[in-house]
Amino acid sequence: MPDKKPHVVIVGAGFGGLNAARQLSEASVEVTLIDQNNYHLFQPLLYQVSTAMVSPSEIAYPVRSIFRKQDNLNFRLTEMTGMDPKNQCVKTSTGSIAYDYLILAPGGETNFFGLDSVAQNGIGMKNLDDSIAIRNHILKLFELATQEDDPLTCQALRTFLIVGGGPTGVECAGALAELIRLVLIKDFPGMDFSDTRILLLEMGDRLLAGFPEDLAERALKTLEQKHVEVRFGAQVTNYDGTHVRLKDSEEILTSTLIWAAGVRAVSVLDKSGLDQARQGRVVVQPTLQVPGYPKVFVIGDAAYLEVDGKSLPMVAPVAIQQAKLATRNIQHMISGQPLEGFQYQDPGSLATIGRNAAVAEVKGFKFHGFAAWLVWLAVHLFWLIGFRNRLLVMINWAQDYIFYDRAERLITPDGNPRTQDRPWPEDNAIVEEIET
Amino acid sequence: MPDKKPHVVIVGAGFGGLNAARQLSEASVEVTLIDQNNYHLFQPLLYQVSTAMVSPSEIAYPVRSIFRKQDNLNFRLTEMTGMDPKNQCVKTSTGSIAYDYLILAPGGETNFFGLDSVAQNGIGMKNLDDSIAIRNHILKLFELATQEDDPLTCQALRTFLIVGGGPTGVECAGALAELIRLVLIKDFPGMDFSDTRILLLEMGDRLLAGFPEDLAERALKTLEQKHVEVRFGAQVTNYDGTHVRLKDSEEILTSTLIWAAGVRAVSVLDKSGLDQARQGRVVVQPTLQVPGYPKVFVIGDAAYLEVDGKSLPMVAPVAIQQAKLATRNIQHMISGQPLEGFQYQDPGSLATIGRNAAVAEVKGFKFHGFAAWLVWLAVHLFWLIGFRNRLLVMINWAQDYIFYDRAERLITPDGNPRTQDRPWPEDNAIVEEIET
Q: Is A213 exposed, middle or buried (0-12, 13-18, 19+ CB in 10 A)?
């Protein structure tokens, strides 16, 4: 009987899972990659879908296309529903899958910190559904505003609230400001834009907590130049779809709450039986193995590992570097060699705040303004998978840059239940809520 | 008191409404254009969205962008819900709109001819939701098939049924055949494609009823070369989601029924109080006025007019030419001149059946094969609104042509309730249905 090749199961086709699968292309293993979507999503540009800058297919790429030439890989479109590490199998919505080695790279999801009203009436920023829903929602509100006479309803329709001053919130606020003040202003010639507000709420006392402080200051100034109102020490406690209540009892009238204030490891891990640390992340050893289950590796947003006393950030470079180590350690285990520990090479930090403006820190060097924006552009284009996507995104960006235009201003169907029952097309809902 | 300009309300931003609005750009009137979508949809290419060839934003264009420079036009995103011709107003989901002149160009919708089971379990081909739903559905079924062992379920998953041998059905069948046999065959290397079937059912005894008979023969041959099974005299009587029943009691096992067998004027016209003829189309005089309501014009798919004893086809050229006449007649009425009657200039017929293959008839000249395909390509690119869309569609087509690839193979959220409860991700549903 010939030796059967070890079966490596990888859960998730994000940056971690994708790179793990690629690393194993020459290895003498059978790889099964599962994901609940048939595409790899370039999450750093989700906010550009939300702000009508690129189309969904420009930041998503079919998994099967990526792995067409990798003979030792099977893809299964299915959702992980749990696992049984004692019996070495992953449970999915289409049956159990047995593994010899498991790499869990299921990623993160929006963390509403138990604020049910926000989860129900706000919109997150972690997947394609969310982003399409935000785009549809914003464009619909402007349409509604043209047909609305009630001043309070108008105020709610034209106030856009973004919660969370990290890179996602900052980038989203900058892009939304430009969408409204450079593009939509041309689409709605009769409309008075002076009372259109974008608020960015941050609980702490500064933006971009992971960045050097002077760059955060730069980002704040740039946002303020774009008429984004940034508020610090602001904590949301409730949102009913039109009224946001803050901890200091202040109330803000808005039809839009975009929640960029928290991320956690995907909640299916809560049912995995594995030890979890903060944000639901699974505790791993420096080898990325789960204590007690040496054949289970966790990488990326789903893994909790401290390096120099600090937990690793939930960003793509961590996931990619961990993917390389996890696959190397699996090959070490197969060949009976000692395993290696994870060492993080921090490539720096980057955030863009719209046209010509970004902040970047690379190996101690700090950039801001146009130079940082060029760095940001180059890095993101380089990372986008596939020549075609790069070219199309470039066309959209060029059009946006040259013509102050956005190509993707379509209100298309979205599968997000949170936006299905929004006040459209019966616009009276808002008025009534405010009046009562 | 200065004279108030006459208010022309146009319902629908399809080919008819869009062109009517444009024609009035220099006229001394106020124009209100309403549509339930914020985009104009290039319907002739819907089947390319269904077959993952182009992305939705490449065949849809925001209405506000199109009319940015037209000062006398207001756009309202709203849905017509009825009308009151005696009091000269249109009812919408966001209130009533009074008009001096009304142009109804609301277009058509899928006609299921009262077959409720087909309406519920099949998918139409008349709007963007339908097309995205078809794309998602086809791609999901191939994913399901890789995880399915039951032979009967596999047979259902791999049988694709298109009903209707008109241009929509023929183009869809040709594009689907190429998607499967040129593209998906590379994405699913382990799969046996020999039992994948595409059936095109036509009730009559020939394809493309409006085309010359020899071109229809050509189309039939081309489809057969692409392994599409064409059946004539086949009439669907029931579809439960897995079993199609034909009038002769034959049963076909399929998870996919694409209904391209009928179109009717949008059903909101049934509540308009206006006289309707076949397919719910509103009877108009040669001037395009509604009898009894001289200030109401109906154009395009929604209008019923006979020319030389034949009703006009529901195609874009009719709508565009009627838009020109209706707006001219409104201006005649305003200036007190006699109205003109409609004369149709038939530009010919065109249908494509995939790579390098099309059939065309232009002013008595008949083309087929590569020459007709070039004509088709030129006409459609010329018609697509906006340079950008033309360029992007060209890139996608070129990629498809050169690399035998499809760029848009994403399963993304769709708003179609008919596909929300499809057997995914719990795949047992089909098996159980077949076993019982």
A: exposed
- Does the residue B68 lie in any domain? no
Q: Which domain holds residue A102?
A: 7-36+78-110+264-334
**B129 lies in the same domain as B230:** yes
Contact A152, A434 (CB under 8 A): yes
Q: What is the pTM of this model?
A: 0.86
Could you say which of A58, A109, A148, A171 is catalytic? A171
Q: Does pLDDT of A431 surpass 50?
A: no
- B373 and B242 within one domain: yes
Give the containing element (helix H, strand E) for B368.
Answer: strand B365-368
The answer as to whether B58 is a domain residue is no
Q: Which residue carries 């006979």 as its tokens?
A: B306
Q: Which of B409, B421, B424 to mutate to test the interface with A (most CBs of A within 10 A)?
A: B409
Q: What is the CATH number of the domain that holds B220?
A: 3.50.50.100
Whether residues A158 and A275 fall in one domain: no
Whether residue B338 lies within 8 A of chain A, CB to CB, comes out as no
Chain A's closest residue to B389, CA to CA, is A407
Q: Which of residues 147-166 of A touch B (CB under 8 A)?
A: 147
- Residue A36 sits at the vertex; the CA angle it makes with A325 and A62, to the nearest 5 degrees, is 80
What is the rounded (10 degree) CA torsion for B145, B147, B150, B152?
Answer: -10
Over residues A206-249, the pLDDT tens digits come to 999 888 899 999 999 999 999 999 999 999 999 999 999 999 98
pLDDT attached to residue B290: 98
Range of weakest confidence among B89-98, B249-258, B367-376? B367-376
On whether both A30 and A134 belong to a single domain, the answer is no
Residue B47 lies in a domain: no
Our count of domains for chain A comes to 2
Q: Which of A64, A78, A147 is closest, CB to CB, to B94? A: A147
Asked whether residue B136 falls in the same domain as residue B269, the answer is no
Please report which confidence band the pLDDT of residue B419 belongs to, taking 50, 70 and 90 as the band edges.
Answer: very low
pLDDT for the residue A398: 64
How is residue A301 written in tokens? Answer: 């947003």
CA distance A426 to B93: 6
Is the CB of B98 inside 8 Å of chain A's CB atoms?
A: no
B82-100 pLDDT tens trace: 999 999 999 999 999 999 9
Say which CATH number the domain at B21 has.
3.50.50.60
Report yes or no: A371 at the B interface, CB cutoff 8 Å: no
What's the whole-number mean pLDDT along residues B229-252? 95
Give ipTM to 2 decimals: 0.82
